[in-house]
Amino acid sequence: MTQILLDPFFEFDFLRQALLACILLSFAAVPLGLFVSYRRLSLTGDSLSHAILPGIALGFWFYGLSIPAMTIGGFIAGFIIVLISTWTSKVTLLKEDSTLAVTYLLSLALGVFLVSLKGSPLDLFHFLFGNILSIDSENLLYLGFATLFILIILFIIYEPLKVLTVDFEFARFLKVRTTLVHVLFMTLVVLNLVISFRLLGTLLSVGELIIPAITARLFFRKFTSQVIGGVIISGLSCLIGLLLSFHLNWPSGPTLILCMGMFFILGLFRRWVREG
Question: Which of 126, 251, 268, 274 keeps 20 to 30 A from 245, CA to CA?
Fold first, then answer.
C-alpha cells in the first residue's frame, strides 16, 4: 500500500512539486472562493478565468513560454475586464454578470485565435487545461509569493468585504467604499486565476477556486472552519488526483478537478442524509 501511496512522491520530484503547488494555491483559492460563493459570483469567476486568456496569449506571442510575461499579460487582461464590467453596470441597465458573459465569450475566442496563430495544438491544450506536472522550484517560489500577496491584501480588506458580502446597503450606510473593495476583491480573484493557469489551464483553474470552497460549506458552518476544511479538501483531492493520474496515466488537471467533484458529491449526500 505504501508503495502505491507514498513511493511516487519520494521517487519523483515533479509529483512532489505538483502536490506542493496545489496546496499553496489552495491557501488563497479557498478563502477567495468562499467570498465568491457567498456573494453569488461563482459564474463570474468562471467568466474571469476565460477573460485572462487573451493577455496570456499576447505574452506568449512576444516572449514565448515566459511565465512572468504570460502572468503579467493575463493579469492586465483580467483587470481590464473587471473595470469594464464594473463601469458598465454603473452607467447602463446591464448587470455586471451580463457584461462578463459577453466578454467571456469574446475573450475565449480571441485567446484561442491568438494561441492558434502563434503556437501548436499542444500549446493550446496546455493553455486551456494546464500542465501541472511541469511545475519546477522557480514556479513554486513565484506561486508562494503570489499566494502570500493575495492573503495579505485579503486580510486588509476583510472587514469591509465581510460587510459588503452580508448587506450591500448597510455597507453603503457605513460609508464603506464599496466600488473600491469590490474591484480589489475581483482583482485578487483575477490574480489567483492567473497564477493557477499553469497548473490547471484557463478552463479548469476556476474549479480550484470554487469547488473546494462550496464543498466546505456543505460540511462546516463557521467561516474559519470552512477555510480550513476547504484547504484540506483541496489538498486531499490533489493527492488522490495525482496518484490516479500517475498510476492510471490519466490527464492530471481534469483528474484533480474530478476528485474535488467527488468530495462535493459526498458533501451533498451527507447533507441529504442529515436533513432528509
Answer: 268
Give the count of alpha carbons within 13 A of 194, CB side only: 30
Whole-number pLDDT of residue 264: 95
Per-residue pLDDT of 197-239, as tens digits, reads 777 776 678 888 899 999 999 999 899 999 999 999 999 999 9
For residues 261 and 256, what is the distance between their CA atoms, to the nearest angstrom?
Answer: 9
Give which of 256, 216, 267 is closest to 23, Cα–Cα: 256
* pTM for this entry: 0.86
Count of other CB atoms within 10 angstroms of residue 160: 20
Looking at residue 102, its amino acid is V
Cα 118–chain centre separation: 26
